[in-house]
Amino acid sequence: MKTQFLKAFLLVGIIAATFTACKKDDDSDDDVTLEQANYVVKGTVNNQAVNITDGYATTGWDGSQTGLLSSNIVFRSKVKPSLSVDVPAVDIRFGDLYYSSNDYTDQDNFYDYFRTGSGQWAYGIDTDGDATERKVDVIFTDANGDVWSSTNGSGSQAGSTFEITEVFKSNKSSGYVLKFRAKLRCNLYNDNGDAIVADITEFIGQVETYE
């Protein structure tokens, strides 16, 4: 009887310890801030799961000279599985912002451009530097290396959405950095006009500017 009681006691203890450990793990996940979070892409593209949980992020920008001392800048945030693994990958292009090369986008304008909330963004790429026109292009490179884009050709984006849900702002010695969490749903097209649907429930990437 004593042995059976001891076994039962140990079993209850193991279950309790396991439950406590799981709860601590859950709590620790909840406690991870956007600043601490890995770069991720979670969702589906063409009804196939895309799940990058500890990705490698690159930032960059495309500039077009519009005058002697001014440029229009398209900011880019790309997340792929790792430094050495390039596909699948999601590349988001935001643009564009206008600023002088001697007076880059100031901090308030840069951060305000990437504001949170629904209804802020439309699919496309702005070409006149009007910061009130927030445009976004989603580019997906699949496992075969084929490229699909939301702005490829003249395909419809009726019913598509894009929302930045959270941001983390920080400065660096030569500019500003913004880490962001977003979700999106859009149509993607290849060069042949074929269409697939991207439904990304979570994207964590980063954009930055220089001065």
Can you describe this structure?
This protein is an alpha+beta fold. The protein folds into two domains: 1-31; 34-210, no CATH class. The chain has helices at residues 2-31, 107-113, and strands at residues 39-45, 48-67, 70-80, 89-100, 122-123, 135-141, 147-149, 161-172, 175-189, 195-210. Strands 1, 2, 3, 4, 5, 6, 7, 8, 9 and 10 form a ten-stranded mixed sheet that branches. The longest helix is centred in the first third of the chain and has 30 residues, at 2-31. It is globular. The model is unreliable at 1-28 (pLDDT under 50).
Short description:
With about 210 residues, the chain is of the alpha+beta class. Helix content is about 20%, strand content about 50%. It has helices spanning about 1-30, 105-115; strands spanning about 40-45, 50-65, 70-80, 90-100, 120-125, 135-140, 145-150, 160-170, 175-190, 195-210.
Q: Say how many strands there are.
A: 10
- First-last Cα distance: 77 Å
Low-confidence stretches: 1-28
Oligomer: single chain
Shape: globular
Mean of pLDDT: 80
Share of helix among residues? 10-25%
Number of discrete helical segments = 2
Largest sheet: 10 strands, mixed
Sheet-strand content, in percent, reads over 45%
Would you list the SSEs in sequence order as H and E?
HEEEEHEEEEEE
Structural class: alpha+beta
Total individual domains: 2
Radius of gyration (Å): 22 Å
